[in-house]
Design brief:
alpha/beta; TIM Barrel; 8-stranded parallel β-sheet; 12 helices; globular
Length: 298
Amino acid sequence: MENQVIHYITPAVTPMLPDGRIDFASCEKLYHHLMDGGVDGILILGSIGEFFGFTMEQKKELLSFAAGVIGKKVRLIAGTTSMVFDEILELSGYALEQGADGVMVIPPYYFHFTDESVFEYYDRLAREIDGNLYLYNFPDRTGYEIAPWVVKKLAEKHANIVGIKDTISGVDHTRELIKQVKPVRPDFLIYSGFDDNFAHNVLCGGNGCIAGLSNLYPELTSAWARAARDGRFDKVQEIQQSVDRLMDIYAVGKPFVPFIKEAMAMKGIIAHPTATSPMPAASPEQKERLKKIMAGGA
């Protein structure tokens, strides 16, 4: 894996107070927890960061705060998705002005769009955003995928489209991205969106993960990335087995976001498990299940 860029980036949750306001004290504690744990970067306002539940004003306030805490200590990526195109441009410009290293945008949801329409969408974004842009493929949320040929064509056309987060349960789509895009853009960063796909991603020639368990276990996931970079496959295998056990956290309830937050509150990483409405709160039974999973150890 010599010269292969391998990262583990955390899509950070957005800690909240019981009254629904952003908990900036917990945000600061979380960001230091992640940086001290060795993560390679932090994504603010991704899916697990509940971008869909905050106003433009709240998003700007959070991005400004995060940039102030994180600085240039690790890579900072800002999720700037909106169903209103001009809001994406506004928030992306703001995030880049605050010091973000790039922005990430999921394609339009609610309606399904053709491959050609998705290409045109990102083509326009790349032309109008003055900074690095990451694509975000999450078919469970959009109802369709960003086709590998679209990613390849965009990567060939726009130097500022620098990578993709491929949040898909299998590895076939990610593997096809690597096969098609890397030959024409070796520097193009291809990340998996589920933690348990990290090793397969790297073995295929990808660049690692942007995945949620690192909120809870940054030391574990950063050790995984180091082991992969060092070619220590015995350690990669050992951590894979730990992560496979911990993936049960995602299955405690749906959507998984408030249950990740509940686990983080249990560990004292954040003060409250509050999530945006109408996210459910964990039941007593679900809390017990989370405790048992975490008691199994990392």
